[in-house]
Amino acid sequence: MTSLVLAILGVIAAVVVLLIFAGWAALSLLTGAPMHVLASIGKMCAIAAASTVIPLAAPALTLGVVWLARSRGWTPRPRGHGLAVSGVVISAIALASLLLTAPFWGVEVCTRLVC
Fold first, then answer.
1. 92 Cβ partners below 8 Å, 6+ apart?
2. I need a surface site. Which of 8, 47, 55, 75 has the fewest CB within 10 A?
3. Global pTM?
4. Which residues are CB-neighbours of 5 under 8 A, at least 6 positions away?
5. For residues 25 and 44, what is the distance between their CA atoms, to the nearest angstrom?
6. What is the dihedral sign for C-alpha 72, 76, 82, 84?
7. Cα separations in angstroms, 20 against 16, 23, 39, 75, 103
8. Strand, helix or coil at 103?
9. Contact 2, 63 (CB under 8 A)
10. What is residue 72's predicted lDDT score, i.e. its pLDDT?
11. What residues of the chain score a pLDDT lower than 50?
C-alpha cells in the first residue's frame, strides 16, 4: 500500500509542477516572449518535475518490487498484491516519463532580461 501511495503522491506532485510551469509558459506566450525563453521555462520545468518525482517514485518502485519478491510463491495471493502491482506500474511510468524531459536538460537557462 505504501508503494501505491508514494507513486500517487509523486504523480500528483508532478502534475502540479507541470501545471504551474504550463501557466508560466502560457503567460510568457501572451506577452510575446521569444522561443529561447520558452525553452528555458521547459528546462526549469523538467528540473522541478524530476526533483519532485524521483524522491517519491523511486522508493515506491523499490518498496513495490521488494514486496512482490517477498510474496512470490504464495499460493493464495496475499492482501495488497494488486496495490503493490499498481504502485510498481505507476512509479515505473512516472520515472520513464522523465526520459521525455531529457531534451530540455541541455538548454541553457535564460535568467537575464535580454538574452
1. 61
2. 75
3. 0.70
4. 60, 87
5. 11
6. negative
7. 6, 5, 15, 47, 20
8. helix
9. yes
10. 77
11. none
Residues in the chain: 115
Report d(CA 109, CA 115) in Å as an integer.
9
Q: Which amino acid is at 89?
A: V
Sign of the C-alpha dihedral, residues 93, 19, 60, 87?
Answer: negative
Say how far apart CA 75 and CA 112 lie, in whole Å: 63
Helices (H), 1-115: 2-30, 35-70, 81-97
Cell for 37?
525563453
**What span, in angstroms and rounded, lies between the C-alpha atoms of 18 and 16?**
5
Type of residue numbered 95: L
Cα–Cα dist 12/94, whole Å = 10
How far apart are alpha carbons 6 and 10 in whole angstroms? 6
Q: Are 10 and 52 in contact (CB under 8 A)?
A: yes
pLDDT of residue 111: 63
Secondary structure class of 32 (helix, strand, coil): coil
Residue position matching grid coordinates 508560466:
24
